[in-house]
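Predict structure. Chain length: 280.
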Amino acid sequence: MPALPWVVLLGAAVGFVAGMFGVGGNFLLTPLLSVVFGVPLPVAAGTGLCQMIGTALVSFLRHQHLRQGEVRFDLVMLAGSIIGADAGVRTLTELARSTGLLRGVPLVHVVVDSTYVVVLVGAALTFWIEAGRPAIAAPLARVRLGPTVRLPAVGLEVSALILAWVGFGLGFLSGLLGIGGGVALMPILVYGYGFPMRQAAGTGIIVLLATAAYGTVVHAVHGHVELPLAMALLVGATPAAQLGAIATAHLPPAVLRRAFAIVVLLTALAVAWDLARRFT
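Prediction complete.
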């Protein structure tokens, strides 16, 4: 296991980000465990999901106290996200077992790191470009496919079928990349459905919690969870997540969007650098 003080510090940084932006924080944690501390990717993914259970629970309770978030959105996505998480874990396990190489680099690193970069850069650019625009198109909120569900906290009525598929996609990313899917969910909430930034930060946490719990169990079955490492991360992440959630209530939405974009983009650059290094 890496040195304890550095692990606790990493947990605190991830917890603060998770609380502030309503994400699991594993988009930051999993690649850093792999790139900086040299933890194998499957173990980084499984351990990251394990610690995210505590971080997501703390964030959820704090956001509920601040009355931020739409619980119905989470509940509709839940079944799809669990199915997607199982599919993602199975895909990662098969990639890890594969002996395939691309110019000497294991296939699991090529696929997972490339997916990380695409997802993170897409989310970062979306938030940075759209941060200063007051009008949000919210195209997904206008789709009327199948039964609908009312979201009173944000004044919307949306397609339950589309929400289920969104949940599946986020769950798949959770299982494959060891993230909660919140980094992909945030732009969907803000720009796909038109959620205010603070309501978006408090939404999706139940799904993150459920997918993290399920993904942890599946990863543990495959031996991908290092419990001492997860506990050390939680020591730093648990109090920091509450501070991050409180900060959300005091910062302007445009500042939150650009801050989120910067954090995500820096993580994407770290993953891209690590992947490029492996090819040299």
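Summary: The mean pLDDT is 81.
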